[in-house]
């Protein structure tokens, strides 16, 4: 007879779900990630399907919850650094002197916006600052070029 699976946690990020799956499997607990492929392919509907569910056999559920809680306090999940956030900020600042770089900075910011939940707080700040700099300076640069024409 198959064991009944119980959801012990839910995540909206495939990387985070995989991280906690590996933690539990290292402790010898069988883990199934339900709806992982759905969220990975179409992240916009992750809330509609209830996010990625971390499921374990019913007999191991209390032990799994205890391990997750203990590990979260000891070593919380940290999303990987996004080099695009640093590049966007660098391009925005350098774009003050070299105006075409503002467009590149805005392009990088546009690529980072869908991943904002997966970004670290530091990368979120970098992305926001790059957006502000680019959006403030781009009209100034366009107006300066219009005056010179």
What does this structure look like?
Strands 1-3-2 form a 3-stranded antiparallel β-sheet. It is built from 6 helices and 3 strands. The protein has 2 domains: 5-74; 83-148, no CATH class. The N and C termini lie far apart (79 Å). With 149 residues, the chain is mainly alpha-helical.
Note the gap between the termini.
Answer: 79 Å
Helix content: 55-70%
Strand order of the largest sheet: 1-3-2
The tally of strands reads 3
Shape: elongated
- Which residues form runs of ≥5 with pLDDT under 50? none
Cα radius of gyration in angstroms? 21 Å
Domain count: the total is: 2
SSE topology string = EHEHEHHHH
Number of helices: 6
By secondary-structure content and strand pairing, the structural class works out as: mainly alpha
pLDDT average, as an integer?
Answer: 84
Give the biggest beta sheet. 3 strands, antiparallel
DSSP strand content: 5-15%
Features:
single chain; 149 residues; mainly alpha; 2 domains; 6 helices; 3 strands; 58% helix; elongated
SSE layout and pairing:
Blueprint: E1 5-11, H1 14-26, E2 32-34, H2 36-41, E3 52-57, H3 61-74, H4 83-94, H5 100-112, H6 121-148
Antiparallel strand pairs: 1-3, 2-3
Helix pairs in contact: 4-5, 4-6, 5-6
